[in-house]
């Protein structure tokens, strides 16, 4: 009987050890899958060329006060004249300017081809105008590096009294006003003018 009890205890210990090993293996596999999921999620929300957030990443945007929409002036001419590889390099360098001069609390994404959105916290239209103007000046400095003119037009809108969709539409309208008025400038969307 004593031998039989020892055998049962031994078998139970062996099962417990195997279950612990299986549990550890499952935890490690789970950790690996979570890392892979995080990698895939980052890939889905990152622009591969500029390493900025992309349009899909806007699903989680909230609590920002103003937004800036910027569009590279005459980007098609840059691509047609100097080639798409140079155009890509312009996009990368402009993205670097954004990364360097936009606060960590703010949010930058590549909206489309040569358009970028910047969401700003704790600011008003005047602060957003100042930030957009600083970015405009820093982007102009890239002209010396590339040997041809690089400029960007910006539109600024306020998020406090509008939906994200309306704020983007308003910033787009202001940006096109910048384009219409000679490019390489910043325009703040004025709600009262539009009523």
What does it look like?
57% of the residues lie in helices and 16% in strands. With 195 residues, it is of the alpha/beta class. It has a 6-stranded mixed β-sheet with strand order 1-3-4-2-5-6. A hairpin with a 2-residue loop joins strand 3 and strand 4. Helix 2 crosses helix 3 and helix 3 crosses helix 4. The longest helix is centred in the first third of the chain and has 44 residues. It starts with a helix and ends with a helix. The model has no long low-confidence stretch (mean pLDDT 90).
Descriptive key words:
alpha/beta; 16% strand; single chain; 6-stranded mixed sheet; 195 residues
Summarize the structure.
With 195 residues, this protein is an alpha/beta fold. The chain is 57% helix and 16% strand. The protein has a 6-stranded mixed β-sheet with strand order 1-3-4-2-5-6.
Note the topology.
Layout: H1 2-45, E1 53-54, E2 66-72, H2 75-82, H3 84-101, E3 107-112, E4 115-120, H4 125-140, H5 142-146, E5 152-158, H6 164-180, E6 186-188, H7 191-194
Parallel strand pairs: 1-3, 5-6
Antiparallel strand pairs: 2-4, 2-5, 3-4
Query: What is the rounded distance between the termini?
Result: 94 Å
Order of strands across the widest beta sheet?
1-3-4-2-5-6
Structural class of the secondary structure composition?
Answer: alpha/beta
Biggest β-sheet description: 6 strands, mixed
Estimate the mean pLDDT confidence.
Answer: 90
Structure summary, number of beta strands: 6
**What is the helix tally?**
7
Q: How helical, in percent, are the residues? A: 55-70%
Residue runs with pLDDT of under 50 for 5 or more positions:
none
Give helix and strand order, one letter per element, not per position. HEEHHEEHHEHEH
Which geometry do the CA atoms define? elongated
Q: Compute the gyration radius: what is it?
A: 26 Å
Quote the beta fraction.
Answer: 15-25%
């Amino acid at each position: 009987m004593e031998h039989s009890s020892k055998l049962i205890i031994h078998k139970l210990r062996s099962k417990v050890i195997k279950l612990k090993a299986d549990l550890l293996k499952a935890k490690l596999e789970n950790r690996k899958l979570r890392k892979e999921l995080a990698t895939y999620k980052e890939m889905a929300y990152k622009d591969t060329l500029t390493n900025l957030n992309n349009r899909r990443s806007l699903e989680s945007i909230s609590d920002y006060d103003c937004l800036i929409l910027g569009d590279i002036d005459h980007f098609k001419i840059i691509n047609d004249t100097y080639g798409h590889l140079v155009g890509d390099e312009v996009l990368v360098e402009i993205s670097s300017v954004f990364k360097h001069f936009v606060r960590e609390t703010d949010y930058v994404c590549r909206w489309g081809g040569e358009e970028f959105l910047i969401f700003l916290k704790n600011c008003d239209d005047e602060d957003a105008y100042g930030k957009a103007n600083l970015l405009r000046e820093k982007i102009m400095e890239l002209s010396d590096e590339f040997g041809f003119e690089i400029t960007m037009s910006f539109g600024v809108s306020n998020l406090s009294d509008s939906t994200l969709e309306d704020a983007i539409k308003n910033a787009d309208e202001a940006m096109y006003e910048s384009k219409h008025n000679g490019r390489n400038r910043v325009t703040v969307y004025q709600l009262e003018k539009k009523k």
